[in-house]
């Protein structure tokens, strides 16, 4: 049994977070992960506050274990949601795609455990000074909005830059990834793509099928020109966007092209116009199974791998 300090801090059985995937990670998925002993996280994405409040209530009706809310800081509703998590007494807040400094004091005063995603050493140092509970170091193998550095390179640097517990994310979907994350100095992992195959994940069946059929080179990054690089499956939408991006389409038209594309993937499974966010590890997601089984399976797999590594030490 692998227990680490993040388990003690959050009161969870397994050091496994489910990533806050916009439009995807709802109250039902989060509750299933938390009931399985991990940390389920509701994604606020670009949704209005009332949607998030409703999902928190759904999660709380399905579990009495801790749950988290991920606030996407580029959302126009980020301020509203920052207040709602206090109101609804959410145990953990994770943040992504920006700097959460202005909210941290109030969250801490409300006894919320704050765990920002950081994609650089400077952000890790700033968050450490502001007294957050832990950090998520997310490498660019991940799906969705990506930073510059890979998990392999980012995690040890973040571990060196802080005394806080570090959760590794990006490119992790099985016990080998968990073991590797621990070797790099992390004390937990966050997985997104692996949970797309969970029974409780209610994405469109053709989104799930695309993940289960994915191969090694099946993701690509678009959106660099506008400063918001996003990793998704290499579909007609992603190829078309990339062509437009490098073909000189004006910024406003490019933005319009992406508007609503994630919803079309998640809800309609629209192969032509949908943006199917996924991490590079999609190729290793092989089967549909309950979320709780995923949490236990990756940790059970990691154990003998870590033991075997120790055996080489003379
Ligand atoms: O946030 C994510 N992944 C996401 S957010 C998202 S919704 C979206 N849709 C279209 C365009 C952009 C976003 C889909 N996937 N992951 C966490 C993450 N945070 N990765 C990288 C970062 C990050 C980047 C910069 C965190 C902090 C940061 O700081 C910049 C600063 O303000 O200095």
Could you explain the architecture of this structure?
α6 (121-129) links the parallel β5 (113-118) and β6. α2 packs parallel to α3 and α8 packs across α13. The chain is globular and about 55 Å long. The protein has 314 residues and is an alpha/beta fold. The chain contains 13 helices and 11 strands. Ligand TUI binds next to β5 and β7.
Structural class, by secondary structure, is alpha/beta
Give the strand tally: 11
Q: Specify the overall morphology.
A: globular
Proportion in helices: 40-55%
Give the arrangement of secondary structure elements.
Elements (H helix, E strand, L loop, with lengths): L4 H6 L5 E3 L8 H9 L4 E4 L5 H14 L4 E6 L5 H10 L4 E5 L4 H9 L3 E6 L2 H9 L5 E4 L5 E2 L5 H11 L4 E4 L5 H9 L4 E4 L13 H8 L6 E4 L7 E4 L2 H11 L4 H8 L2 H8 L22 H21 L3
Parallel strand pairs: 1-9, 2-3, 3-4, 4-5, 5-6, 6-8, 8-9
Antiparallel strand pairs: 7-11, 10-11
Helix pairs in contact: 2-3, 6-7, 8-13
This protein binds ligand TUI.
The site of ligand TUI has 18 residues, from strand 5 and strand 7.
Feature tags:
alpha/beta, eight-stranded parallel β-sheet, globular, 11 strands, 314 residues, three-stranded antiparallel β-sheet, 42% helix, binds ligand TUI
């Amino acid at each position: 049994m692998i227990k680490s300090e993040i388990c003690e801090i959050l009161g969870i059985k397994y050091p496994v977070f489910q990533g806050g995937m916009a439009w995807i990670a709802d109250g039902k998925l989060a509750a299933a992960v938390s009931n399985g002993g991990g940390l389920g996280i509701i994604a606020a994405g670009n949704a209005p506050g009332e949607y998030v409040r409703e999902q928190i209530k759904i999660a709380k009706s399905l579990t009495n274990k801790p749950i988290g809310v991920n606030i996407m800081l580029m959302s126009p509703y980020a301020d509203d949601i920052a207040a709602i998590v206090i109101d609804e007494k959410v145990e953990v807040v994770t943040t992504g795609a920006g700097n959460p400094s202005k909210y941290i004091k109030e969250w801490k005063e409300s006894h919320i455990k704050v765990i920002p995603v950081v994609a650089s050493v400077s952000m890790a140092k700033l968050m450490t000074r502001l007294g957050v509970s832990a950090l998520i170091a997310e490498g660019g193998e991940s799906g969705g909005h990506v930073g510059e550095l890979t998990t392999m390179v980012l995690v040890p640097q973040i571990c060196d830059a802080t005394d806080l517990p570090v959760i590794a994310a990006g490119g992790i979907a099985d016990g080998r990834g968990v073991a590797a994350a621990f070797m790099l100095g992390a004390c937990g992992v966050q997985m997104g793509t692996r949970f797309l195959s969970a029974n409780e994940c209610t994405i469109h069946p053709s989104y799930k099928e695309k993940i289960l059929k994915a191969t090694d080179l099946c993701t690509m990054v678009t959106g660099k020109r506008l400063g918001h690089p996003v990793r998704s499956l290499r579909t007609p939408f992603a190829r078309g966007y990339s062509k437009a991006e490098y073909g000189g389409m004006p910024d406003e038209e490019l933005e319009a092209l992406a508007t609503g594309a994630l919803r079309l993937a998640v809800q309609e499974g629209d192969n032509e116009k949908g943006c199917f966010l996924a991490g590079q590890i999609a190729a290793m997601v092989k089967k549909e199974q309950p979320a709780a089984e995923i949490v236990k399976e990756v940790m059970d797999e990691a154990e003998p791998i870590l033991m075997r590594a120790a055996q080489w030490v003379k």
